[in-house]
Amino acid sequence: MDLSIVILSYYNKNLVKEFLTNIFELRLPYDYEIIVVDNASYDGLAELIRDDFPGVKFIQSKKNGGFAYGNNLGIKQARGKYILLCNPDLAVLSAGIEILYNYMEDHPEVGLAGPRLINADQSIQYSCTRFPDWRLPLYRRTLLGETKKGQTWLDQYLMKKVNHYHNFYVPALFGACLIIRTEYLNKVGLLDEKYFMYMEDLDWSRRFWENGFKVAYVGQAEIIHLHRRQSASENIMKSFFNKPARNHIVSFIKYLLKFRNHQLPKAE
Predict the structure, then answer these.
(1) Which one, of 69, 173, 67, lies nearest residue 112 by Cα?
(2) 170: Cβ–Cβ under 8 A, 6 or more apart, which residues?
(3) Do residues 188 and 58 lie in contact, with contact meaning Cβ atoms separated by under 8 Å?
(4) Are 209 and 267 in contact (CB under 8 A)?
(5) What DSSP state is assigned to residue 128?
(6) Architecture field, domain 3-132+162-229
(7) Which Pfam families match (predicted)?
(8) Distance CA 74, CA 59 (A)
(9) Which one of 23, 27, 223, 255 has the fewest beta carbons within 10 angstroms of its own beta carbon?
């Protein structure tokens, strides 16, 4: 099996339907499988897969254990040489998946890679980052990020000054679309399920580097991501009453505690 495509859904039945149709229309030149995981939304996705996509493997999670938990259910069932983790809000209108696959074939030193994600209007989503410090939730989740100091920090963190149409090694990638070399998971391990949402992709990227495998941004591979990030709250206290922001902050604290005695890996 060349490729396993894992799609995690939480109340996204219609998006999954559109994305599955998109994938099959690509006529990918691989021996591949598709695994759809429903994170306990029970929104009719099981029946949709059964009736419209009988060749797709479906996993029904009995609980919503979060991003890492749900994706790990799919990863454990995957048989491919590579695993492509996908959010359901993606659209592939070019050879993005094939370019990612070929990049992994040509770069055995790379264990984890991601494409250039773009918005529907063709603008770039900054999905590769440097390793953050304690300022991350302040500048990402509050209006402090709109200050001159905050903008300078965020531009550096999000690597905005590099050419995102090129391929290069990066410290970390966001998890909306990732391709993994399956054999390296024996050493690196699965996504850490202690994170309910956020930071699991940063944690994973860091562990790939720590175990001697490179992480790459494949700017030549273009994939549309329809996600819309919520705007920052006015202050840090209001952020705690915003569930996504609260999850982000709690996960970041867990990340800092987990790696507090680790040196940053040289991501090059």
Answers:
(1) 173
(2) 128, 129, 130, 159, 205, 215, 216, 217, 267
(3) no
(4) yes
(5) E
(6) Alpha-Beta Complex (3.90)
(7) Glycos_transf_2
(8) 7
(9) 27
CA distance 135 to 140: 8
* Average pLDDT over the chain, rounded to an integer: 92
CB-based burial label for 239 (10 Å; 0-12, 13-18, 19+): buried
Residue 234 has pLDDT above 60, yes or no: no
Contact partners, residue 164, CB within 8 Å, separation at least 6: 116, 124, 126, 128, 217, 219
Query: What average pLDDT score do residues 221-240 get?
Result: 64
Q: How far apart are the first and last CA of the chain?
A: 30
Among 36-45, 93-102, 250-259, name the one with the lowest average pLDDT: 250-259
CA 39 to chain centre: 16
Q: Give the CA distances from residue 79 to residues 3, 33, 57, 182, in Å, rounded to whole numbers and listed in that order.
A: 8, 8, 12, 9
Give the Cβ contact number of residue 253 at 10 Å: 13
pTM above 0.85?
yes
